[in-house]
Amino acid sequence: MKKIAIFPGDGIGPEIVDAARLVLDAVDQAAGLNLQCTDGLVGGAALDATDDPLPEASLQLAMAADAVILGAVGGPRWDGLPPAKRPEQGLLRLRKNLDLFANLRPAQIFPQLLSASPLRPELVRDVDILVVRELTGDIYFGQPRAVELVDGKRRAYNTMVYDEDEIRRIAHVAFKAAQGRRKQLCSVDKANVLETTRLWREVVTELAAEYPDVHLTHMYVDNAAMQLIRAPSQFDVLLTGNMFGDILSDEASQLTGSIGMLPSASLGEGRGMYEPIHGSAPDIAGQDKANPLATILSVAMMLRHSLGAEQWAQRVEKAVQKVLDDGLRTADIAAAGEAVVGTRAMGQAVVKAL
Amino acid sequence: MKKIAIFPGDGIGPEIVDAARLVLDAVDQAAGLNLQCTDGLVGGAALDATDDPLPEASLQLAMAADAVILGAVGGPRWDGLPPAKRPEQGLLRLRKNLDLFANLRPAQIFPQLLSASPLRPELVRDVDILVVRELTGDIYFGQPRAVELVDGKRRAYNTMVYDEDEIRRIAHVAFKAAQGRRKQLCSVDKANVLETTRLWREVVTELAAEYPDVHLTHMYVDNAAMQLIRAPSQFDVLLTGNMFGDILSDEASQLTGSIGMLPSASLGEGRGMYEPIHGSAPDIAGQDKANPLATILSVAMMLRHSLGAEQWAQRVEKAVQKVLDDGLRTADIAAAGEAVVGTRAMGQAVVKAL
Ligand SMILES: CC(C)[C@H](C(=O)O)[C@@H](O)C(=O)O
Ligand SMILES: CC(C)[C@H](C(=O)O)[C@@H](O)C(=O)O
Q: Are strands A102-108 and A128-134 parallel, antiparallel or unpaired?
């Protein structure tokens, strides 16, 4: 028996998670996985109910689970709240408390959706990038941090910090991922300016000897932001710290033009958390318009990384390709004139294609 | 009489600066500006000659000047050197010592070069963005910073820091720039995670009352990295800190597909420094292949911002448009099959078009 904690979250979260549940249930029955799924509250939904974006009960639920599925958190309703009371804090505390240090964010072109890319088709046709982003360190969590009054003047600071163990464990993840792919690893830093990323480059370079089959390169973050647009198919695996990865993984995903399609996994030593990379889209919430495929592909990543069911992961991925081949489109990925299906119908179609 | 300090720097620096000199000399004579130009060493060239990327004589030369022209610094020859002995340090120390806190980086489409953009033409046709990047603060210069050994383990950190005065002075520059343009100002931060950028957002918001004609919005840095690709023409002026601006201004410039065309200005209370945004391109150095137009357009920015010669700035900019209209192309901006001119010939053509 495996325990799955499900946090639908805010906005379109509940709908896309419900559609993904259809797929998960179908796989569970067909494969005899014997999953025990329990829902919990996080983000704005948790704030409304308990005044805390990650109530103790939710944290316990996640800690006791083998894997976590998350919809999306946040929305304008909670934007005015103080920092500790923001939906995002629920997400950041989940990552930190579960020690989910490795964020895997694939940015992959779906050939059926090539025309959705803002880039010229010849530049993106072959794009298949995996961003491996460190997720529990860096300036996100570094101490000290504060807004202070110094001689009556406001002053604020944060600390970017990494130690060699933190760098090493995420670099291992990236090297291994590259071994299973095209064996190209590009590590991103700003080693010409920042000590923290100079250590980053040093430690990553040291590990290269353990992975002689992987070709390691280094790139400054400003150049990486350019190269992702200029010639994105040069990249296989991109390894980044938490802050640079936040920026570059969003940039990379936008290259595909279909961020409603892109899943993510956040892995630690034990359990993993799986979520679409898109946000909670409050403007279309509750209207059966949202694209559930990123969440469904996140379920595939869960089958692969947390449930040891690689074959079923591939079957879900193939089912998604099939519904795209069949011309099914939610509004976000429909070209002008194409017929549109709803969130639930898309989930059902994937189940059928399984 | 106005004093101009010229630092050709490394790689293609000397060639592009020589071509720009042709234009500057022509304007000087025609407009009777009475310029006194003096060359100095910075970057790798200075390291080779004096073992210091910014020798005291160069700093004095820059301090005594009304404006500084810089070619480009850096190259693989100096990559192995320790941090304090890197060409980039010359640049960073110039910025800091001259208090050049406002970096203006226009990312503009040249209609003649539309097909060079990696983006679909309909998305970039109207792109005309000015990135206003803070240049003397943030994690670039924040203290403390170090690589340390803690219990035998390496650990490194940097400090992101801003006080309200630093934020206010760069925000004023951005608001004023927006007033002279389309009156849209988008300030970039990561206020949902970083205290430093929460203060940033707070202070920028306070200033908005002084500029009622400017429409101020705020955007998280990860979203900005996406929106720049998804719909770049939504932006007029983008206001950023030093680190985020390093990344986003490079991304924005790449949208145009012609970074060999883009100038920049770094302004303080007094003098300004002007340089192309591209690098030193050591692979084509000394071959009369480099595109001097970004440096020539930087001269135009100098005429505008440091020499009070707006009309001559516009004449230089029009001359550049004219040579493009006439079909002159250096290798970097030539489409397949187009005839190519060299660095010096391009400079001469601009002089003729003046
Ligand atoms: C919501 C926010 C805190 C989060 C981050 O910055 O990590 C998001 O942008 C992401 O990338 O998952
Ligand atoms: C060379 C480097 C130190 C510099 C920076 O990071 O500011 C460069 O990337 C730039 O943007 O001018």
A: antiparallel
3-class secondary-structure state, position A298: helix
Amino acid B44: pLDDT: 95
Closest CA to A267 of A349, A200, A170, A354: A170
- Express each pLDDT in A99-134 by its tens digit: 999 999 999 999 999 999 999 999 999 999 999 999
**Catalytic residue, candidates A222, A325, A326, A352:** A222
Average pLDDT value for residue range B101-121? 95
pLDDT of residue A55: 97
**Which residues share a beta bridge with B6?**
B39, B69
- Helix, strand, or coil here: B215? strand
Cα(B102)–Cα(B167) distance, rounded to whole angstroms?
Answer: 11
d(CA B43, CA B31): 32
Q: Does A192 touch chain B (CB under 8 A)?
A: yes
Looking at chain A, how many residues does it have? 354
Determine whether the annotation assigns residue A296 to a binding site.
no
Give residue A84's pLDDT.
81
* DSSP code for B291: -
Q: Taking residues A251-266, report their average pLDDT.
A: 94
What average pLDDT does this structure show over A171-191?
98
| Catalytic (active site) residue B151 | no
Q: Is A230 on the interface with B (CB under 8 A)?
A: yes
**CA A114 to ligand 2 center in whole angstroms:** 34
* The A2-9 sheet, strands edge to edge: A35-39, A2-9, A67-72, A272-276, A263-267, A102-108, A128-134, A237-240, A184-189, A215-220
**What strands lie across the sheet with B146-150, from one edge to the other?**
A146-150, A153-163, B153-163, B146-150
A83: pLDDT strictly greater than 80: no
The question of whether B246 is a catalytic residue gets the answer yes
Q: How far apart are CA B345 and CA B288, in angstroms?
A: 9
Overall average pLDDT of the A67-94 stretch = 91
DSSP 3-state of B93: helix
B296, B314 contact by CB (below 8 A): no
Helix (H, G, I), strand (E, B) or coil at A199: helix
Contact assignment for B221 to A118 by CB distance below 8 Å: no
Please work out whether the CB of residue B128 comes within 6 Å of at least one atom of ligand 2.
Answer: no
Measured distance CA(A187)–CA(A202) in Å, rounded: 11
Q: What is the rounded average pLDDT of the residues A291-320? A: 97
Chain A residue numbers touching B43 (CB-CB < 8 A): none
Would you state the pLDDT for residue B202?
97
Taking 3-state DSSP, the helix, strand and coil percentages for chain B, each rounded to the nearest 5, stand at: 50, 20, 30
Q: Which residues of A92-124 are buried (b: 16+ CB within 10 A; e: fewer)?
A: bbbbeebebbbbbbbbbbbebbbebbbbeeebb
Give the distance from residue B296's alpha carbon to the nearest chain A alpha carbon, in angstroms. 23
| Residue type, position A263, single letter | P
A276 preceded by cis ω (within 30°)?
Answer: no
Q: What is the pTM of this model?
A: 0.96
For the segment B92-117, the average pLDDT, to the nearest whole number, is 96
Chain A residue with minimum CA distance to B222: A247
Pair type for strands A263-267 and A272-276 = antiparallel
Q: How far apart (Å, rounded) are the C-alpha atoms in residues A149 and A153?
A: 5
Nearest Cα of chain A lies from the Cα of B203 at a distance, in angstroms, of 9
pLDDT at residue B283 tops 80: yes
